[in-house]
Amino acid sequence: MGEFLKVLGRLKLRYRKFQTAFVGFFGFENKKRLESSSLTFHFH
Asked: Which domain holds residue 31?
């Protein structure tokens, strides 16, 4: 979990670039797909 905290710190600086990894880590990949397809929004 130590690495996770370090990532959070950098996330503030590169939240946009880390967002993909952060979202994937949480298993919220669906959220990223929502940006490409609003149809998936129904799933959430």
From this structure: 2-43
